[in-house]
Amino acid sequence: MSVAKINAITVPSDRVEEFVARFAARSGSVTSSPGFEAFELLAPNDDRGVFLVYTRWASEDDFQAWVQSPAFAHGHRGQSTDGPVSTHSELWSFEVAITEAPAEA
């Protein structure tokens, strides 16, 4: 059964562009990881200021292997002299109970 990891990251409005640019710069770095199934960066369209980083993995072991990998460390190193882009981060973990995909035409 797949697992979903959602990192809820609070980003001040004056750092949003930098935050999104960081993810764009490392685009594709996780896609070759064993067990990787999906990634989405969800931007708030209200006044919450919380981005959701959604990844789905074939197993918890696959996710943990990625967290311990050099690619993870490289993607999460500090990249700004202005300090962290976010002010808070919380990792949520779920098992995928039901999945639906669009019907093929």
Automatic annotation (TrEMBL):
Listed SUPFAM superfamilies: Dimeric alpha+beta barrel (SSF54909)
InterPro entries: ABM_dom, Dimeric_a/b-barrel, Heme-degrading_MO
Residues of the ABM domain: 3-96
Matching Gene3D superfamilies: 3.30.70.100
A Pfam short name: ABM
PANTHER family: SIGNAL TRANSDUCTION PROTEIN TRAP (PTHR34474)
Protein name: Unannotated protein
Protein's organism: freshwater metagenome
